[in-house]
Specification:
The protein has a five-stranded antiparallel beta sheet, sandwiched between helices. A five-stranded mixed beta sheet has the order 16-7-5-3-17. A hairpin with a 2-residue loop joins strand 12 (223-231) and strand 13. By secondary structure, the chain is an alpha/beta fold. It starts with a helix and ends with a helix. It is 28% helix and 25% strand. The radius of gyration is 26 Å and the shape is globular. It has twelve helices and 20 strands.
Length: 480
């Protein structure tokens, strides 16, 4: 008995790296056939810190949306936290004394990942302030920087014809509202009548609506479904279900089939409402505006540090991939060429190792990196005093996370960790998480966990990963 007690006591004094490599609970997933790459380590004072946990840290695996932290880091280094993307209205001629623009009005898409109808309204008001009252030519939506961008994933390719989600938006440097149509559903006054369905951004018929929603009696419950389909006449929002007479209005978002065309329709409606007639209708083009075109109005987007908060907190694929294209060094880049720019950035980080990013969002299942490589990136950003505050602020603390599924595990994990997660379900399950932690004594650490399924492994839930990871990380935090 004395010998057994002594052995157990000595075992409890061993470092975490000797006990299941510090990830003793997470390692259980390997027994079910999942591929795991994981590493957690403290950050030293200019030197490599102590490794607290390690499971095949050099293994190349899919990071899913953890890819977005590469995009965020590269964008901060390239543009700086206060950079703003500018969208312009140009004239191919100067307006005359009566306010008539004898030429085309050109929307010069600046690649703003968060251009909204509010920004377009400001453009229109500034155009009006500039004295323009009529456009004799056309409204030309120029996506000369990038767009339409070839789809690389099944979701985006299928979305050119039919889509039932908002996350797989197509890409254009002139896109508005994250490449999504929005409709508002409100109940009719009486049960049995069709619900009221209108565009979110005004009364104009921006997108055709096929309304199959019935108003039901009070407290009957609200169940809504939406699908955007595209026919020979363009996009249709097909909405169905039911809404109670005492329910509040709901908003439904679905990606458009042509973001530049969406921007054109939206801007045309605003120009009409402002009393600025456009004689020639609207068209889209991939041509750069002529050098002789003059600026009539401009609007700057939100600072990059604010864009990253939304990009990472909400894991916004459209914003991440738009930033990826903004980073590309080639004219009219493909998404993978934007990924090349991020790969080049990571290639300059000593000790990173191989990286493949076909997209900055992580929607492309071919993306590959290692847990050790992700930690190199995280440490690099930690050591950038002017960039780190903007970078870490875009991560989530589990206890306050906007993604509710991360609000689990011990209180230590909930309150001492800042992370970004990544999820894919096809062609195999991917659950990934990476970020920073603070130990009980206030030391900083980095961690990365990539869990990939195979063709023979079952579906992997977040609870299976986070329940184990939270216990393992909490032990490391408490022990230091």
């Amino acid at each position: 008995m004395l010998s057994r007690c002594l052995s157990l006591c000595l075992l409890s004094l061993l470092p975490l790296t000797a006990l299941g490599h510090g990830f003793s609970h997470l390692e259980e997933l390997a027994d079910d056939g999942f591929l795991i790459g994981a590493e957690a380590r403290l950050l030293g004072n200019g030197e490599p810190g102590e490794t607290l946990g390690s499971l095949s840290p050099e293994r190349q695996l899919s990071p899913a949306s953890v890819s977005k932290i590469y995009t965020a880091a590269a964008a901060l280094e390239r543009f700086g936290p206060q950079h703003r993307f500018t969208t312009q209205l140009l004239g191919s001629a100067e307006p005359d004394a009566e306010g008539v623009l004898q030429g085309d009005l050109i929307l010069d898409g600046g690649g703003d990942p968060a251009l909204t109808t509010e920004d377009l309204w400001r453009l229109v008001q500034r155009l009006h302030q500039a004295g323009v009252r009529e456009v004799a030519g056309r409204l030309v939506v120029s996506q000369w920087r990038f767009g339409p961008v070839a789809c690389l994933t099944t979701d985006r390719c299928d979305g050119q014809r039919r889509v039932d989600n908002a996350y797989s938006a197509l890409l254009s440097s002139a896109a508005v509202n994250y490449g999504n149509w929005c409709v508002t559903v409100a109940p009719a006054r009486t049960a049995g009548a069709p619900a009221q369905v209108t565009p979110c951004d005004g009364q104009a018929d921006l997108v055709r609506i096929d309304n199959r929603i019935e108003t039901r009696p009070p407290d009957s419950g609200t169940q809504l479904a939406a699908e955007r389909v595209t026919d020979g006449d363009g996009d249709v929002m097909r909405v169905s279900g039911q809404i109670s007479t005492n329910a509040r209005p709901r908003e439904l978002y679905r990606t458009s089939s042509d973001p530049a065309e969406q921007a054109g329709r939206t801007l045309m409606a605003m120009l009409e409402q402002a009393g600025i007639a456009v004689a020639g209708g609207h068209v889209t083009t991939t041509l750069e505006p002529p050098a002789s075109a003059s600026r009539l109005a401009a609007v700057d987007g939100k600072p990059l540090q604010e864009l990253l908060l939304r990009t990472l907190n909400y894991s916004n694929n459209f914003m991440a991939d738009t930033l990826t294209l903004d980073l590309a060094k080639t004219p009219r880049p493909s998404l993978s060429q934007g990924g090349d720019a991020i790969e080049a950035f990571a290639g300059g980080l000593a000790g990173h190792g191989p990286l493949r990013l076909d997209s900055g969002s992580g929607l492309t299942p071919e993306n590959r990196t290692s847990a050790a490589g992700v930690n190199v990136l995280l440490e690099h950003m930690f050591r950038q005093p002017s960039l780190f505050p903007s970078f870490v602020a875009a991560l989530q603390s589990p206890s306050n996370g906007v993604m509710r599924f991360i609000r689990r595990g011990p209180a230590t994990f909930q309150d001492h960790v800042m992370l970004k997660t990544g999820t894919l379900n096809q062609p195999v399950s991917v659950r990934a998480a990476a970020g920073y932690f603070r130990t009980r004594t206030g030391r900083w650490g980095v961690f990365s966990v990539l869990v990939n399924g195979t063709g023979s492994t079952p579906y992997l839930s977040w609870s299976q990963v986070l329940d184990r990871l939270s216990v393992d990380l909490s032990a490391m935090i408490e022990a230091h």
